[in-house]
Design a protein that fits this description.
The protein has 258 residues and is an alpha+beta fold. It has one domain (2-219). The protein contains six helices and eight strands; from the N terminus they run βαββββαβββαααα. The protein has an eight-stranded mixed β-sheet with strand order 2-3-4-5-1-6-8-7, with helices on both faces. The radius of gyration is 27 Å and the shape is elongated. The mean pLDDT is 83.
C-alpha cells in the first residue's frame, strides 16, 4: 500500500532552479514539472503551478523537502492545501473507490499519472477557494448596490479587482489541463484507462465547469460595475459642462449690465 500526498504550497515553483539544486536524478522532466524516484518506490513530483506530490515519504522527509523547495516558490501560501489517495497493488483487477484505488501495474509511469491527477485535484481546490473569495467581494459590492442604489467601489479598487480576476483566470487557463490527456497516455492503453478513471473519480469535469461558471458570474458583475462607473463619470462630465456654460452666461450678463 502506498499513500499519494499532494500539497499546494505556492502559486508558482521555479522548476529550473529545483532541478539545478536537487541532487537526485530526474525520471522525467520538462519546463513545467520534474519527477524523481528511486528503487524503493519513493517518488517526489514538483509542478510549476505550486504543487508538490509525494509517494513513500514520511512526514519528516516531506517537511524537509518542502523546506528545500521554499526558496524557489513564488507567493507561498499561509495554509498548505492537501489532497491524498491510497494506492493498492492488485494482480487481478483495477478498482477505483473513494480516495483509494487498486492497480494491476505499479511502475513509474503509472505512479506519475496517479500523482499528476492528485496534483490537479488539489490545484482545483486551491483555485476554487480563490474564486470563492472573489465571489464574496463581488457580493459585497452588489449588496451595496441593492441597498443604496450605487456601488462604493472606486476606480482604483475596481481596476485592482479586475486585475485580480484576470490574473486568476489566466492562472487557471495555464495550469488546469485536466481536459487534456498527458502525452504518456497516447500510446499506452493502460495509462489512458487509469488517467480517464481518475478524472471521473475526482469529478474534474464537474469541478472545472463550476469554476468556469463562477468566473463568468464575476465577469458579468465586473462589466456591470464598469458600466455604472462610466455612466456616473458621463453624468458628472455633463454637469460640469452645464456649470461651465452657466458661468459663461452669467459672466456675459454681468458684463453687459455693468
Amino acid at each position: 500500500m502506498y499513500n499519494v500526498i499532494a500539497f499546494q504550497i505556492a502559486d508558482h515553483i521555479d522548476i529550473k532552479e529545483v532541478k539545478k539544486s536537487y541532487a537526485g536524478t530526474a525520471m522525467h522532466s520538462d519546463l513545467s514539472e520534474v519527477l524523481y524516484g528511486d528503487k524503493d518506490n519513493k517518488y517526489f513530483y514538483v509542478l510549476a503551478y505550486g504543487v508538490v506530490v509525494f509517494v513513500g515519504y514520511d512526514e519528516a522527509e516531506i517537511s524537509k523537502l518542502i523546506e528545500f523547495i521554499s526558496p524557489y516558490c513564488k507567493n507561498i501560501l499561509k495554509e498548505k492545501l492537501m489532497d491524498e489517495l491510497t494506492i493498492k497493488v492488485d494482480g487481478k483487477n483495477d478498482i477505483f473507490g473513494y480516495n483509494e484505488i487498486s492497480v494491476t501495474r505499479f511502475e513509474p509511469m503509472v505512479v506519475k499519472i496517479i500523482m499528476m491527477n492528485v496534483a490537479q485535484s488539489v490545484a482545483i481546490y486551491h483555485f476554487t477557494r480563490q474564486i470563492e473569495l472573489l465571489l464574496e467581494e463581488t457580493h459585497l459590492y452588489t449588496s451595496q448596490l441593492e441597498k443604496t442604489g450605487k456601488s462604493n467601489i472606486s476606480g482604483i479598487r475596481l481596476r485592482k479587482f479586475i486585475g485580480k480576476s484576470l490574473n486568476l483566470k489566466n492562472q487557471i487557463s495555464e495550469n488546469l489541463y485536466i481536459l487534456d490527456s498527458p502525452a504518456e497516455t497516447w500510446e499506452d492503453e493502460y495509462l489512458n484507462k487509469i488517467d480517464g478513471r481518475l478524472k471521473k473519480m475526482f469529478d474534474f469535469n464537474i469541478r472545472y465547469r463550476s469554476i468556469n461558471e463562477d468566473i463568468q458570474i464575476i465577469k458579468d458583475n465586473l462589466d456591470l460595475f464598469r458600466d455604472l462607473m462610466q455612466h456616473e463619470k458621463s453624468n458628472l462630465l455633463e454637469w460640469i459642462i452645464i456649470a461651465l456654460i452657466l458661468v459663461e452666461v452669467l459672466d456675459m450678463i454681468i458684463g453687459r449690465l455693468f
